Amino acid sequence: xxxxxxxxxxxxxxxxxxxxxxxxxxxxxxxxxxxxxxxxxxxxxxxxxxxxxxxxxxxxxxxxxxxxxxxxxxxxxxxxxxxxxxxxxxxxxxxxxxxxxxxxxxxxxxxxxxxxxxxxxxxxxxxxxxxxxxxxxxxxxxxxxxxxxxxxxxxxxxxxxxxxxxxxxxxxxxxxxxxxxxxxxxxxxxxxxxxxxxxxxxxxxxxxxxxxxxxxxxxxxxxxxxxxxxxxxxxxxxxxxxxxxxxxxxxxxxxxxxxxxxxxxxxxxxxxxxxxxxxxxxxxxxxxxxxxxxxxxxxxxxxxx
Length: 305
Ligand SMILES: Cc1cc2nc3c(=O)[nH]c(=O)nc-3n(C[C@H](O)[C@H](O)[C@H](O)COP(=O)(O)OP(=O)(O)OC[C@H]3O[C@@H](n4cnc5c(N)ncnc54)[C@H](O)[C@@H]3O)c2cc1C
Fold this sequence. Notes:
The protein has helices spanning about 15-25, 60-70, 135-140, 155-165, 185-190, 240, 280-305; strands at about 5-10, 30-35, 75-80, 85-90, 90-95, 100-110, 115, 130-135, 150, 170-175, 195, 200-205, 210-215, 220-225, 225-230, 230-235, 265-270. By secondary structure, the protein is α/β, with parallel strands linked by helices. Strands 1, 2, 3, 4, 5, 6 and 17 form a seven-stranded mixed sheet that branches.
């Protein structure tokens, strides 16, 4: 017979959102288990920025501090394993892990994050998070006042241009195929002296002081770094779907202002629960809110019994 364990709350995903949820639950003496497979989205980056009191610290070190500080709270356990199935059952939820563990819990917090699916360009994945970057808030200061590229060709890419231009006047847009910007948008780029290149990009290569952006016609552009628009974002919603939680149009888990999903007792926080506000502090704030709401609901349920 399988070993069945009972907890108040299961948090699936133990990075910024999940660990912040665990902290408030630990401080509320809630028996909490955090499952984590150790693949936070910002793992490829050497430094995390815009993290209050931890600006410039490595993402993995920030999470290590988070886990270390949880040790004060004995009701919180961290399990380094994947939850593979989740289902509702009378009075709560039943989870199964990859190693066959069964967990019965009263509340669930989904903090499973997202994955960036990058355009299929040779070399781009290896430089992701260092010289191939996605966010002016995360990496923009370090690349400011240098010659940078942006590989992208949609409305969101155009939206990014203004923010990048705030930091870099020497900017070239690589649309990697026929440009889809409107005539007005293209005229604006021309007016500001922002280069626009439609030739497909075949590779991004590392070099000592930057990168080489190699085009299909053999031309090479030297840049300090390049921004890139992910081809798409994959939201880790398999368990949310199994549990019957609704998703929004972008594919993220629908939540209300208290991080409650459309299924009572299930909360979601962090990148997986928002279509675009993807930052460490935002994830941690959502986790804190989800943890607080779980405890609030359980306290009220127990009080009224
Ligand atoms: C290259 C890069 C650099 C970035 N730099 C910054 C920055 O400088 N500042 C900033 O504020 N933001 C930055 N971000 C954004 C930041 O990474 C995210 O906003 C943040 O990681 C979201 O935290 P999260 O807890 O929601 O998800 P994640 O950090 O993605 O963590 C999700 C966790 O859940 C685990 N998991 C998933 N499914 C399961 C499962 N079924 N069972 C068990 N565990 C599971 C994963 O292994 C992972 O550890 C960056 C993003 C990228 C891509």
